[in-house]
Design goal:
By secondary structure, the protein is an alpha/beta fold. It has 21 helices and 19 strands.
Length: 566
């Protein structure tokens, strides 16, 4: 077996790159350049070196933080971490894979593809999704196999499923089988749902026994209490919550790693600093709010966004042939009624345009629609022109518009839509054009493939929460291939908030890179008056009232008696 010895870390655990890590990196090298692979390898070793030693059979635990940009490759990081964990003797890896079924399915599918590689690596990994007590024997059998596979468990971040998992690992038979073997818990989007929503309330009390805990937080503590030797690794793009919770909380991280995005990554700095021309302002009268501005007619800005999306598909997919499809996302409001309203407008427009074009160029409706698209042509090619890149004429684009409209897949991604709800998988390869309409289910963690145009007319009342608005940025990602056809439609106030957040995010990343102590980072974590860092209920009263600084009251004292924490 090929083993590469990595330089010893000062934590005391020196991971070794073995067969499964090399095998995964070899496959990833088909889409990531050699420099990117080297960075991925280095950062993955750094993350695991700060975890407990899986071969030191004793009670030990640690909580660590991994920070990456939104849509920058955190999933690739934790799949590589999983391979490295396998090579170094971790027998079980548990993934908290988001609060929605579509995120659970997305993570399970990704692990099956990247780690198990079809059935090629089925001897090395055994994958279970949301296991129940009926799966206990299968998991125990898998742990007893002579090939010593690593058990991969994806679980919905919900107290019901995590508590069931805790009970399973607390069962004497599985507990004896796992014994003090290393277990790795990977909490994807760790600042969401995991943290205790009663922290602020508890901090005002003088009695620890009166403390309250949210159900998901309690279930995580139960699971950690059932595991003798484990590491809890928090992955997030918005670490404000984990950084600011009580230092004595079991979910408060002790060590951290900052991930480096790949060369083709375009994030907040690209959209709101380097290339502000990618962002288009939605006029106040067209900004949507279910109470304050419940629009009754389709706004002109949405029509413009749809036409820019279709022309972007023509340029990138049909003419330049850089991608096989492009997507558009519409996020109007958190209320599902709003998503249904915008979905209806979009579907009616696309159907009407298809009918107009079917009538032929002699029809007045055909000519009117062509003029409407032509009025948006200058915007569609504006950034190609300003960056001195080739761009097609309007007539070249128009040649493909009818086919693109006919081949546009429109999805309403909300939980109440049984046909297209939580368990709906988007068949990205089926169409050259996709339009996804939704809110929370298109929020944090969900990947909209090849997203080019984002329309988000969401109206905010009062201060926004910094980590929440950042997690709505599905439009960040690896877009260099089609960046000049990307557009983000936002209200003016939201644009200001994003600009301020980007400045804050870059400062915060620098603090994390420059400071080994997370307590030092906490003291630096001040933010613009326009934004709140995170939701108040997860922070202590002292943290909130002293504007995110000062020593914090413990809120998980009793749990710390059960689970060791280093």
């Amino acid at each position: 077996m090929e083993i590469e010895i990595v330089k010893k870390s000062n934590i005391g655990f020196s991971p070794e790159l073995g067969d499964m890590t090399h095998e995964l990196l070899s496959r990833l090298s088909e889409k990531v350049d050699s420099e990117g692979i080297d960075v991925l390898k280095k950062e993955t070793v750094d993350i695991l070196s700060k975890c407990t030693d899986p071969n030191k059979r004793e009670c030990q635990s640690v909580t660590n933080l991994v920070v990456g940009y939104v849509q920058s490759g955190k999933t690739m990081s934790f799949t590589t971490l999983s391979a490295l964990a396998h090579d170094n003797g971790f027998r079980v890896i548990i993934y908290f894979a988001g609060t929605k079924n579509n995120l659970l399915s997305q993570t399970t599918k990704r692990l099956r593809k990247d780690l198990i590689n079809g059935n090629v690596n089925s001897k090395h990994y055994k994958l279970f999704e949301n296991p129940t007590k009926n799966d206990s024997q299968r998991i125990r059998n898998a742990l007893s196999l002579s090939s010593k596979p690593t058990i991969l468990i994806t679980v919905l971040k919900h107290h019901k499923y995590i508590s069931e998992l805790a009970a399973m690992f607390d069962n004497v038979q599985i507990k004896n089988t796992v014994a003090k073997s290393g277990v790795l818990i990977i909490d994807d989007e760790a600042d969401q749902a995991s943290l205790n929503g009663y922290a602020y309330k508890n901090s005002k009390s003088q009695e620890w026994e009166d403390d309250e805990y949210t159900t998901t937080y309690s279930s995580i503590l139960k699971l950690r209490g059932a595991l003798d030797n484990h590491s809890y690794v928090q992955y997030t793009a918005t670490p404000q919550g984990p950084l600011l919770i009580s230092i004595m909380d079991l979910l408060s991280p002790k060590h951290h790693t900052v991930l480096t995005p790949g060369k083709g990554y375009t994030g907040g700095k690209t959209f709101f600093c380097d290339q502000p021309g990618l962002v288009i302002t939605i006029q106040p009268e067209q900004v949507y709010h279910t109470k304050h501005n419940d629009l009754t007619n389709c706004p002109d800005s949405l029509v413009n966004a749809l036409q820019l999306h279709i022309m972007g598909v023509a340029i990138i997919v049909n003419i330049k042939e850089k991608e096989s499809f492009l997507s558009m996302m519409v996020h109007a409001d958190r209320e599902q009624d709003a998503s249904e309203k915008f979905y209806g407008w979009i579907k009616n427009l696309i159907d009407a345009w298809a009918n107009m074009l079917a009538n032929g160029e002699l029809d007045p409706g055909y000519q009117e629609l062509k003029l409407s698209f032509q009025s948006n042509y200058e915007e569609a090619i504006r950034l190609y022109k300003s960056h001195e890149e080739d761009y097609p004429s309007f007539e070249e684009i128009w040649e493909y518009v009818y086919d693109i409209i006919l081949d546009t897949n429109i999805e309403l991604v909300i939980s109440r839509n049984k046909r297209q709800g939580e368990n709906k998988e988007i068949d990205w390869s089926s169409s050259c054009s996709h339009i996804l309409v939704g809110a929370d289910m298109l929020n944090r963690g969900f990947t909209v493939e090849h997203l080019a145009v984002t329309y988000m007319p969401r109206y905010s009342v009062g201060k926004s929460t910094a980590d929440t608005i950042q997690q709505r940025c599905r439009f960040f990602g690896y877009k260099k291939n089609y960046l000049w056809s990307c557009r983000v439609f936002l209200p003016f106030e939201a644009i200001l908030e994003y600009r301020e957040y980007v400045e804050h995010e870059e400062e915060m990343r620098n603090w994390l890179l420059e400071n080994k102590s997370l307590e030092d980072v906490e003291r630096l974590l001040l933010i613009s008056n326009r934004l709140n860092a995170t939701r108040k209920n997860i922070l202590s009263k002292n943290t909130v009232t002293t504007k995110l600084s000062g020593w914090r009251k413990m809120n998980a004292f009793q749990a710390s008696q059960k689970t060791p924490h280093s």
